[in-house]
Design goal:
about 90 residues; alpha+beta; five-stranded mixed β-sheet; 2 helices
């Protein structure tokens, strides 16, 4: 069973701003297309394309703790490129 998600106020504000649902964020966190380290220690960037946003990639910055995953930020990332893309 996946860990529960805990959203920061910043993440919730960005989700409202861009119309991204908790379910969409959960799908990105649990099954990202790829993961990159963030410059901040312990933070991961998880990416996935969302059809409901016109196929744009969405970046979720999160920290995985032993009991839950803390979602720090969520936004469409226009510069995101999968590692296997040219």
């Amino acid at each position: 069973m996946p860990k529960p998600l805990a959203f920061t106020q910043h993440a919730r504000a960005r989700m409202r701003e861009y119309g991204i649902t908790e379910l969409a964020v959960a799908e990105i966190v649990v099954a990202p297309e790829w993961v990159e380290p963030d410059p901040q220690p312990d933070v991961e960037r998880r990416f996935r394309r969302l059809p409901e946003l016109g196929g744009r990639f969405v970046r979720v910055a999160c920290i995985e703790d032993p009991d839950y995953i803390r979602v720090l930020s969520v936004f469409p990332d226009r510069d995101a490129r999968p590692p296997h893309a040219p």
